[in-house]
Amino acid sequence: MGIRAAIIIATSGIIVAGMNIWHDRSELKQNNERHKNEIENKEKLINEFNQQLSQKHSEIQHLETQLTPFKTIALEKFTGDENERLRKLAQEIENLQKDIIAIRDYSDMASLNALGKPHSDGDIVWNTAISMILEGTWEKRENQFVMRRDKEAEEKYREVIQKFPKFPFAYYFLSLCLKDRGNEEWKIYAERAVEILEITTTISGHKSHHDDVLQKLYRYLNETQ
Question: Which residue spans within the chain are E strands per DSSP?
Answer without folding.
Answer: 138-141, 144-147
